[in-house]
Design goal:
alpha+beta, Cytidine Deaminase, domain 2, about 45% helix, elongated
Length: about 230
């Protein structure tokens, strides 16, 4: 599948990933070369760059799909053991957290799109459902994003009492509900609609409104408010 190559130390100096980064900068390296730096050493007649190429081949060249791979899947590649696999997983997780921190700096929410960009990084690469809430003050400034529950592939249990207690404790003026669908299908289920209806009703009773419920997938989102079903 992959052409065998000389070990990296036998390459010309300007072609070695580490030396290339030092002399030309990180942007000059291909994805396979960046992975090779993490991998460190090759296996047999295959260089670290060869292993990087095979990792990319496994996920169709999509780094988002690469981040979804788990330890056993990475270790299926000959020459990638647990230590190398964990280095790759750690680097991809740091990249995800960096994006998350950048998003959290945008602290104003005036639309469903704002809410989606605030929370989407919490849900990247998950194969199970989670539930988070966005807490807002009266000016629609974000005063907190909190995880409520973690579930399985088919759903996650949510206790409305926990949500409203958390909102009251933080002196929130409004709440936005969010959760993910690992299936990639973002239309709300019957359970999603029933939970939202209960939350909206109770929020009106105590003057702590639920402004929206966002269902997040890797490819986009669904907004109860935008679709006129926030009742």
């Amino acid at each position: 599948m992959f052409k065998q190559s000389l070990a990296i130390p036998k390459w010309s100096e300007e072609d070695r990933p580490r030396e290339k980064m030092l002399s030309k900068g990180k942007n000059s390296l291909s994805d396979a070369e960046l992975l090779a730096i993490l991998i460190g050493t090759g296996s047999g007649n295959r260089s670290a760059v060869d292993l990087g190429r095979e990792l990319l081949y496994m996920c169709g060249g999509d780094l988002h799909e690469l981040a979804r791979l788990r330890l056993p899947q990475l270790c299926n590649i000959k020459g990638i053991g647990p230590t190398k696999a964990l280095k790759i997983m750690s680097a991809l997780e740091l990249g995800r957290r960096r994006k998350e921190q950048q998003v959290q700096q945008r602290r104003k929410m005036t639309s469903s799109a704002d809410g989606y960009h605030l929370v989407k990084h919490f849900y990247h690469d998950l194969e199970h459902e989670e539930f988070h809430i966005i807490l807002l003050n009266r000016s629609n400034d974000v005063i907190g994003i909190r995880q409520i529950s973690v579930g399985g592939q088919a759903g996650t249990y949510v206790d409305p009492k926990i949500i409203f207690k958390m909102a009251i404790d933080l002196s929130a003026a409004a709440i936005v509900l969010t959760h993910n669908h690992p299936s990639g299908f973002c239309a709300p289920s019957v359970n999603d609609q029933e939970l939202t209806s209960r939350m909206v009703h109770f929020g009106k009773m105590i003057e702590l409104p639920v402004l929206d419920h966002l269902i997040i997938t890797d490819n986009g989102y669904f907004s109860f408010s935008d679709n006129g079903i926030l009742v």
